[in-house]
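Appendix C: a fully annotated inverse folding record. The material below is reproduced so that readers can follow the format used throughout the book. The structure is listed first as tokens, followed by the designed sequence.
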């Protein structure tokens, strides 16, 4: 079962960066998978013999990974298949990953996304960790998050969005409503100021360096993960819109260049390049489809499933897939 709390368990020992904030308005914290909850698990198990879940479960059982990605998959194996050995592996791995501090020689974005992955793993196996170890992990992880937030340039746009996600996630890990709201404010500001009514994000596509699609997908992933994580602690960002612009505006925009790229005006890209970018950074598609099921998502999902994106929740076909409609007798 996933743990649920209506108020802070206690912030004893939490670093000063987070502790300085008040609890803010009440948020119902649940600890299950950061981006999914019990209903997602129940749906996947109920439909385990049907697509897209049958393929997703097969992929979960067979996929090989190393390091942090391996621990993330083990967390999913525990939550979705009750694999206790996988939970033990993920729990033991956490100590190694959280002890690694800021590395100025590594790309900042990688370090932010990995911190989010570590938090996701922790949330998936949180109920397998005793109280003392849990408190120590929260202290250590928050110290790492604080270091990243304080050290990474806020003017690097994609990193700015992922730092917003990191703040929101920190609020969930530490059960601090104010930190959740800080992350949510980054989301709201982005919707209000950065997303064109057409759907592109100027600050993500700018550069003419061949990276406009990748940056777009990374930006959309950060926003979708903010909306999904917030939803599971009672903060609704999915319906937030300003002058008709919402997360859906940005989520839909890049998909229309999956097969044909001649009208993508930001870079000279081929469909092969765009499709490779989606295969690496398309985790958000299943999460958005879980909420809205846009008709135009269907061909991409058919081509990409099972979708695996470790930076965006890992195997999102499993966590957020939508059961395919079956016939009268199927």
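Designed amino acids, in order:
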């Amino acid at each position: 079962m996933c743990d649920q709390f209506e108020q802070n368990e206690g912030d004893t020992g939490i670093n000063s960066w987070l502790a300085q904030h008040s609890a803010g308005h009440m948020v119902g914290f649940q600890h299950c998978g950061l981006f999914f909850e019990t209903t997602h698990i129940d749906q996947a198990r109920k439909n385990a013999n049907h697509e897209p879940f049958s393929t997703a479960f097969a992929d979960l059982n067979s996929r090989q990974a190393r390091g942090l990605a391996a621990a993330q998959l083990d967390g999913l194996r525990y939550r979705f298949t009750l694999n206790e050995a996988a939970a033990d592996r993920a729990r033991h791995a956490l100590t190694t990953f959280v002890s690694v501090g800021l590395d100025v020689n590594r790309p900042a974005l990688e370090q932010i996304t990995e911190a989010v992955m570590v938090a996701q793993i922790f949330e998936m196996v949180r109920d397998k960790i005793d109280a003392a170890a849990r408190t120590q992990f929260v202290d250590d992880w928050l110290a790492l998050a604080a270091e990243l937030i304080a050290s990474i340039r806020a003017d690097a746009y994609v990193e700015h969005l992922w730092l917003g996600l990191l703040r929101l996630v920190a609020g969930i890990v530490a059960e601090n409503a104010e930190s959740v709201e800080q992350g949510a404010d980054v989301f709201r500001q982005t919707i209000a100021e950065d997303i064109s009514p057409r759907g592109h994000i100027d600050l993500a596509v700018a550069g003419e360096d061949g990276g406009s699609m990748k940056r777009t997908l990374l930006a959309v992933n950060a926003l979708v993960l903010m909306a999904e994580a917030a939803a599971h602690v009672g903060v609704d960002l999915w319906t937030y819109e300003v002058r008709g612009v919402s997360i859906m505006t940005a989520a839909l925009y890049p998909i229309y260049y999956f097969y044909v790229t001649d009208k993508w005006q930001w870079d000279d890209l081929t469909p092969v390049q765009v499709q490779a970018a989606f295969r690496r950074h398309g985790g958000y598609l299943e999460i958005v489809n879980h909420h809205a099921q846009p008709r135009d998502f269907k061909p991409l999902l058919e081509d990409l499933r099972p979708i695996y994106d470790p930076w965006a929740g890992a195997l999102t076909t499993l966590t957020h897939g939508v059961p395919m409609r079956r016939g009268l007798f199927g």
